[in-house]
Write a structure and sequence with these properties.
Blueprint (H helix, E strand, L loop, with lengths): L1 H20 L7 H17 L1
């Protein structure tokens, strides 16, 4: 009985990991703006 419980926990943990890693594949507008700001700062430093 303990093996079944451990197997269920392992499967749920793997599902949670997969969902967590694939949750945000696209960049949002704030991330795009942040990258533009970073690029502008780098250009100013040069």
């Amino acid at each position: 009985m303990m093996k079944v419980g451990k197997s269920i926990i392992a499967v749920l943990a793997m599902i949670a990991l997969i969902v967590g890693l694939s949750g945000c594949p696209k960049e949002g507008p704030l991330e795009k703006a942040g990258k533009k700001i970073d690029k502008t700062i780098e250009d100013i430093k040069k």
